[in-house]
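note to self: dont lose this again. the chain is below, predicted strucutre after it. 250 aa total, dont forget to put it in the shared folder this time
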Amino acid sequence: MSKKGGHHGGAWKVAYADFVTAMMALFLVLWLAAQDQKIKEAVERAFRNPFMSLTKESAGLLPSKVPDSGGRKGAGMSDASSASTFEVAMLRRLQHELAKALTKPEAPEPDDSVKFNLSPEGLRITVFDMARKPVFEPESAKLTEYGSWILTTLAWEISRYKNFTLEIEGHTERGMRPISNTYGSWELSADRANAGRRKLLEHGMVSGQVRKVAGFADTMPVPDAEPEDPTNRRLTLMLRVNPETQSKSY
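---
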């Protein structure tokens, strides 16, 4: 009798485990039914793609309820323009991939013509038109072979991240001699920004990702650089979180 009882003694444990599981499932269903639509959509995204389901307000599944400390958004950015923790991680990975792609086999270090600045706002990529490594032909919006390689490499990597938008800006140094009476630093900086846009689109970027193309002439010098410094001759590419994709699963 003791053997028989011992043989069947574990059946109640299985039944109890099933009962607890059913109760947990019921609890989750009731909890979900009581939540607002935003949380329901977040849960739905989590089940569709658990690795890409983070919301804008939080690094986790549910929106953060923690109030902003001091009442400031930080660095002058609103919630709508700031990347989530997950999106910043994606940008950090992209930055690493870009630096690796721009390192030529014969060079031990990444190319110093390109600088990266990662912030909650997005990833800023600065391409300097240096005298020893010119990106453009002198006084022209025509890309050099080197400049074409830089922008092509950037396009190949950036085109893999469709959930980011791109802003392209052209800049020049102060004191640049006008090319003609009707063509100066404003026209040149704008044309170079557009040349960069065209090269990016040729190599994988989607036109809908480009949200702004502008030339700023010499009005926005590099921080800590004199306005006349050739360092100010540059293109900047700003990758921002696309507000249209923040509430969608990727």
